[in-house]
Design a protein that fits this description.
Strand content: under 5%
Radius of gyration: 27 Å
Number of strands: 0
Helix content: 55-70%
Order of helices and strands: HHHHHH
Length: 256
């Protein structure tokens, strides 16, 4: 029989609480946190590898164009691919730093990452289209390893990084309005600059290589559709329920 309390303040039999491992819930949570941290760290390492690959590809591409004495080396920085690749290296480094330190990405980082991922994917698709079409024209385009790294390998791996990353923010559809300003500014600058220096980074911008302004406009419209389409896919995948979210959590959408 259980012991009873004695004295005037006796209230009844003593109830003994069942023994429960108090530290068990607290031990499980750090274990899950460690697993999440390990996964995030692997993304950080992968992004650093992508950044290094991007730098190597940019250097290799620059050294490759130096082999052509008729090509002005400074023109290489006029390519949309090169500019977006430089931005991608910055995004990979920032993404790696955040992945090592935080479980979730801040909104500004994933906004930047989505922009960069869209641009490098479109660059790869456009370059692949140009290579394929060159077979029907009077010239051939070589695809050395730096171009393969910048146009194909990095964009594909960056897309996989985006699709599988569970720490990215949930983007708003308003993000799509940020996609076109930079490509439009680049296109206007390139057309104006090309009219003065007589050189264009892509054949469809060169009046001497197309049938007229309508063909250039057609290619530009195709590029716009690609930009918006790929950006829409990135937004849609960021809004999937990869992980449970607290109710009423509205902090993951892109601000106005």
């Amino acid at each position: 029989m259980g012991a009873q309390a004695s004295g005037p303040g006796r209230t009844g039999p003593t109830v003994r609480e069942s023994s429960r491992p108090r530290g068990e819930p607290n031990e499980r949570e750090p274990s899950r946190a460690r697993r999440r941290l390990t996964l995030r760290s692997s993304y950080g390492i992968g992004r650093l590898v992508l950044a290094v690959a991007g730098v190597i590809g940019l250097i290799g591409n620059y050294e490759y164009v130096l082999l052509f004495p008729t090509f002005a080396a400074y023109n290489v920085f006029s390519y949309f691919t090169v500019q977006s690749a430089i931005a991608a290296v910055i995004a990979f480094v920032l993404g790696a730093i955040v992945a090592f330190r935080q479980e979730k990405d801040p909104q500004w980082l994933d906004l930047f990452r989505a922009l960069v991922t869209t641009y490098i994917l479109v660059s790869g698709i456009v370059f692949l289209t140009i290579v394929i079409q060159s077979s029907s024209r009077d010239y051939a385009i070589e695809v050395p390893w730096p171009s393969q790294v910048l146009h194909f390998y990095i964009p594909v791996i960056a897309l996989l990084d985006w699709l599988t990353d569970t720490g990215k923010a949930r983007l708003s559809w308003r993000f799509l309005r940020w996609i076109l300003p930079y490509p439009i500014a680049w296109g206007v600058f390139t057309l104006v600059r090309g009219s003065f220096v007589g050189w264009y980074p892509y054949f469809f911008l060169d009046p001497a290589q197309v049938s007229g302004p309508l063909e250039t406009l057609l290619y530009c419209l195709i590029a716009v559709v690609l930009l918006l389409g790929i950006a829409a896919v990135l937004v849609a995948t960021s809004r999937l329920s990869w992980r449970p979210r607290p109710r009423g959590d509205r902090t993951s959408s892109v601000p106005n």
